[in-house]
Design goal:
One of its GO terms (biological process) is cell wall organization. Pfam families: PASTA, PBP_dimer, Transpeptidase. It is found in: Membrane. GO terms for molecular function: carboxypeptidase activity; penicillin binding. InterPro entries: Beta-lactam/transpept, Beta-lactam/transpept-like, PASTA_dom, PBP_dimer, PBP_dimer_sf, PCN-bd_Tpept. The chain has 700 residues and is of the alpha+beta class. It folds into four domains: 33 residues; 161 residues, Penicillin-binding protein 2a (Domain 2); 334 residues, 3-Layer(aba) Sandwich (Beta-lactamase), CATH 3.40.710.10; 96 residues, Trypsin Inhibitor V, Chain A (2-Layer Sandwich). It is built from 22 helices and 30 strands. The strands form nine sheets. Strands 2, 3, 4, 5, 10, 19 and 20 form a seven-stranded mixed β-sheet that branches. Helix 3 runs antiparallel to helix 4 and helix 10 packs antiparallel against helix 20. The longest helix is centred in the first third of the chain and has 33 residues. 37% of the residues are buried.
């Protein structure tokens, strides 16, 4: 083969290879464009744009009286597109950037005008399309920013981008905060009503189209979401704000006084089962208590003497003894299986009713052991028939499991039955104990506690909750009457006589239980739990309540001195504040010329409401009268407060709060001396007012 032919063959081979490669490239291009075109086009779209979820505003949580307990408020992150259409021209941007910096500095007062100007100029040079300017501002702030230079050009021209986020707030701060709870979407953690009713409160998320820009940042394409989120439904809880505040303050005050580890209090409506107040406090530092754990619902522990109600109920219903049966307390010490059961005091020989009122451990142990030792299951089966071994099935999660042992339990021993008789070797939560006492107050009908009254969406009822009956009748009417008699006797002449109130009857039971000291059990440092559970007014029960204080270390550790006062303080205020609450107790009658309490000056409508509520006849008096007078024969006369614009008002006879309100609204600056009721004022009523003039008011 000559040289020429050799060269041509090589050229043809090279050309053929090139042509073959070109055909392969063209074929692949056709395959990608035609066969796989839709796939790669959708992939390209997803890489540059996508739909992001827009969080819905969570529903509100209200108290039963309409007060807002939890709500979502919008907060905004403010970002800026430094290359927006209205400021593409450098001349426009730099002509207004200093004015924008000035307004931002003056409004937020966090950076100087020069610092803001430098930030914006640097962002402009870096060609930022999604520059973060401010975090977590309110809607009012957002409205103000829209009027600033550059931003007032509009969304697309001025470059301001607002990104909304919803922030959960509690208007009453720590009021019932543990019961309200929280929901964390990131960790899926749920506590309290926020977690239990998350399906209702969360709402439905929306969709917003976002696009990826330089730096991998996703920026909204439009200001409004393409699919608007649907806000969550509202929860109407059973909590009463006033009772809740009262319960928290009373409990915290006692915990500080006793230097206790923790405590809880719960108030329950007898007929409806609605929890009106629930407070739980844990000691976090000296004299500092916070809500960190819901003891009332979750803490399953030995209840101590408050459980004696169940023991008496079972034994009386079985006909084992009556209230007048006599028992000898053996000097306050009863030896059984190398274990000594002790009473606080030597009660001697007493009826079983007195034994309950004085909380004799020996008396109930001897009776239960005597009648059930040969058949302990007869006792425990009756406790189970009361559903004391079952959870209440609450509307919120975290309920502690109760424990009622049987002879089949691995830890059953000869001591278990007598120990159970007075509240040991079994476990119940405070709310489970309260439910039993509430059943007695509710004429034997046991109902499950409620925390949510209603669910509403856009003002319309979605679901209304009513009490769920656990047991229609816990015992016979005869036994029920005896139980009520004993519970009232505890307060009138027993261990809780210190909290007796002559204006209304309280029924309940004290409980002072020794609690285990961790791994050391009962052999370690002695710790006690003081509790009081009962209801009021006893002759027409409306509310039941339990108070538990764990390990009081200052003063007494007995329930009557620790838990009892908390119960009495709450009950007194609730009874005094509820005009519809009735008691058959006879109130003191004012007759003849009995002098009524002094009346402060004020507005006629307010006075009329108070007089009407107390059944006092009120008379109209002439406007010339200087102050309200008292006349028990013909009623109480009062005058209307009349304010003349530009004239000094007459505040003599008013309380300080009303006087300050009236004088302040009149343009005067009051100076106060003394305390009580206003007796004198330095400027005569009816004289002209010069704005800002000081007026001295003397109280006595």
């Amino acid at each position: 083969m000559n040289i020429r032919t050799n060269i041509l063959l090589r050229v043809y081979a090279a050309f053929g290879l090139i042509l073959l490669f070109a055909c392969a490239v063209i074929g692949k291009m056709v395959h990608v464009q035609v066969v796989q075109g839709e796939k790669y086009r959708s992939m390209a779209d997803s890489l540059s744009t996508k739909y992001a979820e827009v969080e819905a505003a969570r529903g509100n949580i209200y108290s039963i009286d309409g007060s807002l307990l939890a709500t979502s408020v919008p907060e905004y992150d403010i970002r800026m597109d430094l290359l927006a259409g209205g400021i593409e021209d450098d001349q426009v941007f730099y002509a207004k950037v200093d004015s924008l910096a000035y307004d931002l500095s003056r409004y937020f007062n966090d950076k100087s005008e020069r610092e803001y100007s430098r930030l914006l100029r640097n962002a402009r040079q870096d060609r930022e399309r999604y520059f973060l300017l401010k975090r977590d501002i309110t809607y009012q702030d957002l409205k103000a920013l829209r009027k600033f230079p550059i931003f007032n050009l509009g969304r697309y021209k001025g470059g301001m981008i607002s990104v909304q986020q919803n922030k959960r707030i509690l208007p009453f701060r720590d009021l019932a905060s543990r019961t309200i709870g929280y929901y964390n979407a990131n960790s899926n953690a749920a506590v309290g009503l926020e977690g239990a009713y998350g399906d209702y409160i969360n709402g439905e998320t929306g969709k917003r189209l976002v696009q990826r820009i330089a730096g991998g940042v996703w920026m909204p394409v439009n200001e409004d979401a393409e699919i608007a989120p649907k806000d969550g439904a509202d929860i109407i809880s059973t909590i009463d704000v006033n009772m809740q505040d009262l319960a928290q303050n009373a409990l915290k005050k006692q915990l500080i006084k006793s230097a206790a580890d923790f405590g809880c209090v719960m108030v329950m409506d007898v007929k409806t089962g609605e929890i009106k107040a629930i407070a739980n406090y844990t000691k976090v530092a000296e004299d500092d208590y916070q809500e960190t754990f819901n003891y009332g619902i979750a803490q399953s522990a030995e209840p101590g003497s408050t459980f004696k109600l169940a023991s008496y109920l079972v034994a009386i219903e079985d006909g084992k003894f009556g209230l007048n049966d006599i028992v000898t307390t053996d000097g306050g010490q009863y030896r059984l299986y190398n274990h000594t059961i002790k009473d606080h005091e030597n009660e001697g020989t007493i009826p079983m009713k007195v034994a309950f009122e004085r909380s004799s451990n020996v008396a109930i142990v001897k009776q239960i052991y005597k009648h059930y030792k040969d058949n302990p299951d007869a006792f425990t089966s009756k406790l189970k028939a009361l559903h004391l071994d079952e959870k209440l099935g609450l509307q919120i999660s975290g309920e502690g499991a109760p424990l009622i042992k049987t002879t089949k339990s691995k830890s059953w021993s000869g001591l278990t039955l007598p120990q159970m008789a007075y509240g040991y070797e079994l476990k119940m939560t405070p709310l489970q104990i309260l439910t039993l006492y509430n059943a007695v107050a509710n004429n034997g009908k046991m109902i499950a506690p409620l925390f949510v009254h209603e669910i509403r969406r856009l003002g319309n009822t979605v679901e209304l909750f009513k009490a769920r009956t656990i047991k229609e009748q816990i015992c016979s009417d005869k036994t029920l009457g005896l139980l009520k008699e004993m519970l009232e006797g505890v307060v009138t002449q027993g261990t809780a006589s210190a909290i007796n109130n002559p204006l209304y009857k309280i029924a309940g039971k004290t409980g002072t239980a020794q609690v285990a000291d961790g791994a050391n059990g009962y052999k370690g440092k002695r710790k006690y739990q003081a509790s009081f559970c009962g209801y009021f007014p006893a002759d027409n029960p409306k509310y039941s309540m339990i108070v538990v204080v764990q390990n009081p270390t200052k003063g007494s550790y007995y329930a009557a001195q620790v838990a009892g006062p908390v119960f009495r303080e709450i009950a007194d205020v609730v009874f005094g504040s509820d005009l519809n609450m009735e008691s058959n107790e006879k109130l003191p009658q004012l007759v003849g010329n009995t002098k009524l309490p002094a009346v402060k000056g004020g507005y006629k409508k307010s006075a009329q409401k108070v007089y009407s509520a107390f059944g006092i006849k009120a008379l109209y008096a002439s406007n010339s009268q200087d102050q309200m007078s008292l006349d028990t024969n013909n009623g109480i006369a009062y005058k209307e407060v009349k304010l003349n614009k530009g004239m000094v008002p007459d505040v003599v006879g008013m309380g300080l709060k009303d006087a300050l309100f009236v004088l302040g609204n009149s343009g005067l600056k009051p100076v106060v001396q003394g305390q009580g009721t206003v007796k004198n004022q330095s400027l005569a009523s009816g004289t002209p007012i010069y704005k800002g003039t000081r007026i001295l008011i003397e109280l006595q």
